[in-house]
From TrEMBL:
Pfam family, one: TetR_N
Keywords in alphabetical order: DNA-binding
InterPro entries for this protein: Homeodomain-like_sf, HTH_TetR, Tet_transcr_reg_TetR-rel_C_sf
DNA-binding feature ranges: 29-48
Residues covered by the HTH tetR-type domain: 6-66
Record's protein name: TetR/AcrR family transcriptional regulator
An example molecular function term from Gene Ontology annotations: DNA binding
Amino acid sequence: MQAEAQLAKSAILEVALQLAEKSSWDRIHLFDVAREMGVGLADIHRHFRNKDALAEAWFDLADAALLRLAQTPGWQQVPQKQRLQFAYSAWLDALAGHRRLTREMIGYRLQPEHVHLQVRGVLRISDTVQWIREVAMLPAAGWRREGAETVLTTIFLAVFARWLVDESPGTRKTQVLLGRLLVAADLGARLVAGLSLRSPASLRAFN
């Protein structure tokens, strides 16, 4: 039964995305989705309480792609800094098929009357960054962990903002920015912690 519900949710989301691609995210309505699928609004409501829940499901797919990285054979042997780069990239790549719509979803949430969506978005970012830490297997604890989370959140926001408008082939400019920010974060962590390049890897927030 749970599998059937998941399939229904996936089908609804896919129809919504396809319809929005023909116009815009702002113009799509749940009754459009229901009509396209030949079902009633109650059938949509059974899986999505409102339109923004569709956007949440879209970002859930990115989180799922991020989490799948942890199942990669030999993942623990990949250097931490590289794991971080892969983690950010996997999250973004999962959204690449509907980048314009992703940008419009963010714009919809940032409208002045959607304060409740903005609060939800902040919480969402916090959760995603937490999972980036877990997937990258960062060992920091205590104040080092809090500092690392602040840095990772800043990187996430900067890279995501760049990716939303990046028209370069393969979003190369976004990847370059991500690489530079991770290098800067690594250097900053070393300076703050007073670590040298030969310090034990288990004591580093990055690398």
